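Batch manifest, entry 17 of 40.
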Amino acid sequence: MAQPPVCKILDYGRYKYEQTRKEREAKKTQKTQTLKEMRLSPRMNEHDLGFKTKLIQDFLQEGDKVKVTLRFRGRENAHPEIGRTVLDEVVKRLDGMALVERTPLLEGRAMTMILSPVPPKVPPKPKTQPPAAATQ
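Output type: C-alpha cells
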C-alpha cells in the first residue's frame, strides 16, 4: 500500500519451478489411505483365523483400511450364517483397533465388510481456572 505503488519484478520461470518443488515436497509428507484386502474361508481353523487377524491388525496399525472378504465355495453358499460368525469373530478379536465401516454384506459368492483404523485419541487439555482474587 505504498505511495507510489511498488511492484516486484521476478523471473516467472523460476517462480513456477519453486511452486512445483513445494508441491512435490508436500506430496512426500502426506499419507494416503489405501484399501487392503484379506480373504478368508468359512471353514478356517482357529490358528489360521488368528494369523489372518494379526495381518489385518498390522494393516490397521499402518493406517490402511481393510476389506475382509469371505469366499463361499460349492455347498458353503447355503450357509451364510457360518460366514457371518467368522466375520463377527474377526471383529471381536480386533475390538478397540478397528471400526466396522461397512457391515458384512453377501454379494454373490462372497461376503464382505470394510474395517477402518480407530482414530488416535487426543487427550483433553486440562482446564486452567483463573486465580481467585484475594478478598479482604
